[in-house]
Specification:
Strand content: 15-25%
Structural class: alpha/beta
CATH topology of the domain at 340-484: Isoleucyl-tRNA Synthetase, Domain 1
Largest sheet: 7 strands, parallel
Number of helices: 18
Oligomer: single chain
Helix content: 40-55%
Distance between the termini: 49 Å
Shape: elongated
Radius of gyration: 26 Å
CATH architecture of the domain at 340-484: Orthogonal Bundle
CATH superfamily of the domain at 340-484: Isoleucyl-tRNA Synthetase, Domain 1
Length: 510
């Protein structure tokens, strides 16, 4: 049987349209999905939207729509944006899906029967943006939530609570015994510090229907609605078949990787595993936390007018350019910035000048000197060893979600191929009658290009497929069998020089 790989993204609220910040995480999941498919894994890639809660209810009311109609409209916008970015997800889950709702109610009852959910009265500060109760000491100097820059509201409600205190020791042991389960390590240490805080205890898992009506009803308690974190986090279970497709669920659960933003680390690294413990379900194998994306150095904000629609960006520059830049420009676990000038420079430099020109001039020389076919040459040994080493380096970085370093390694190989071409000057070798060495040079560079297409495919799938096709292959990279991925390019194969694979972007305006 093929090994499985299950990767998820956080699900986005539909109270606003998707922007480039949302796209970062979704592309990351797609990169992993494509990478592991190439390695021969049976992959399940889940993404979707969170459609319940007060923010969604208010946004629907502002547009004069019923919540479900509003959610239908917004979910379609997210799906369209992800289609434009060439995402290969297996399922797009919506938390209003009937099967999701019934499974969430089932989970609630399992935890309640176990004694891990109980009723209590809560008085405290509630941040609507975080969908969480907050402490006064966690607010900024102006009394605002530091994430949403809005003051929380005082809330007095009778709700159901989850008994987190019962699981704090188990959570601490899980995070301590498995130091690689939450990356980067700084986030793991933050979570361990939170668990050591005595004030950090049981948390509300429902809201009174009088304050929140748009949500999944609590079984046997019509005055209560299941609160966002049980509802939203459970999508990782229901999206892969929990309560509906037992065979699929047992095949793919637990998740191999949850990709999340740094603002929801607590919910995924504390609340979520605790709830899974309460439900007697296996814990996720890894949680990777990424930073935020700014635009031209500023936080993405409607008021600043710097919200970038990923669909419009793709329409102007192509999905591969956007995908490449987002992951080449900054480390995934740190905050990154989308700079139009840097976008222009990096995309043109690497995709058009470096990789594109290497392919174009190599195929031109093959056409002139080898009848348009892969020459019967030898792979230059030093470069072959180096390409093998770089493959291992890429694999190491991918395991650690170090996308920028993986891309850097891939293009280090492209740089070496360009240097080799310039040093050996195959055009001169053929001209001087040294066809054997000229063929060795071209064969070596052609196979490096073949390897580059495979390595870069998860990041720029359409571009990689174009390289693959111009090298003379008729199959699809997304159907490539893992056992054949590292074979040499076959001599005698006719190449297809159809011009530059990536045209320079001459100007970018904000």
């Amino acid at each position: 049987m093929k090994p499985k790989y299950y990767v998820t993204t956080a699900i986005d609220y539909v109270n606003a349209a998707p922007h480039i910040g949302h796209a970062l995480e979704k592309i990351a999941a797609d990169i992993f999905a494509r990478y592991y498919r190439l390695k021969g894994h049976d992959v399940f890639f889940l993404t979707g939207v969170d459609e319940h809660g007060s923010k969604v209810e208010k946004a629907a009311k502002a547009k004069g729509l019923e919540p479900q109609a509003f959610c239908d409209e917004m979910a379609a916008k997210f799906q369209d944006a992800w289609k434009q970015l060439n995402l290969s997800y297996n399922r797009f889950i919506r938390t209003t899906d009937e099967k999701h709702c019934s499974a969430v109610q089932e989970l609630f009852q399992i935890m309640e029967k176990k004694g891990d959910i109980y009723k209590n009265t809560y008085k405290g500060l509630y941040c609507e943006g975080c969908e969480d109760f907050v402490r006064e000491r966690d607010l900024d100097e102006d009394g605002n939530c530091p994430n949403h820059k809005q003051p929380p509201i005082m809330c007095l409600e009778e709700n159901y609570f989850f008994k987190l205190t019962k699981y704090k020791d188990k959570l601490r042991k899980w995070l301590t015994d498995n130091p690689d389960v939450l990356i980067p390590d700084g986030r793991r240490k933050e979570v361990l510090n939170q668990l050591d805080d005595e004030e950090f205890g049981d948390f509300s898992v429902t809201r009174a229907r009088s304050s929140l009506s748009w949500g999944i009803p609590v079984p046997n308690s019509p005055d209560q609605v299941i609160y966002v974190w049980i509802d939203a986090l459970s999508n990782y279970l229901t999206g892969v078949g929990y309560g509906d497709n037992k065979e699929q669920f047992e095949k793919f659960w637990p998740a191999d990787l949850h990709l999340i933003g740094k603002d929801i680390t607590k919910f995924h690294a504390i609340y979520w595993p605790a709830m899974l413990m309460a439900a007697d379900l296996p814990l996720p194998k890894r949680i990777s936390v990424h930073g935020f994306l700014t635009v031209e150095g500023q936080k993405i904000s409607k008021s600043l007018g710097n919200v970038i629609d990923p669909k419009q960006l793709v329409e102007r520059f192509g999905a591969d350019a956007v995908r490449f830049y987002l992951f080449a420009a900054a480390p995934f676990d740190k905050d990154g910035d989308f700079s139009h000038e840097d976008f222009l420079n990096k995309v043109n430099s690497e995709l058009a000048n470096n990789l594109g020109n290497l392919l174009n001039r190599t195929l031109t020389l093959v056409g002139r000197n080898c009848d348009g076919k892969v020459p019967d040459g030898q792979f230059e040994n030093n470069l072959r060893e180096e390409s093998n080493e770089i493959h291992a380096v890429v694999e190491k970085h991918m395991r650690q979600c170090e996308f920028a370093k993986a891309i850097e390694a891939i293009f280090a190989l492209v740089d070496q191929a360009n240097k080799y071409m310039n040093d050996e000057k195959p055009w001169t070798l053929f001209k001087e009658g040294n066809a054997a060495q000229g063929k060795t040079v071209l064969y070596t560079v052609l196979d490096i290009l073949r390897r580059t297409a495979i390595e870069i495919y998860p990041f720029t799938p359409a571009l990689a497929q174009t390289i693959w096709y111009q090298l003379g292959f008729d199959d699809k990279l997304d159907e490539l069998k893992a056992e054949g991925a590292w074979d040499l390019i076959p001599a005698g194969q006719a190449v297809r020089n159809e011009g530059p694979i990536f045209k320079r972007i001459e100007e970018v305006t904000a």
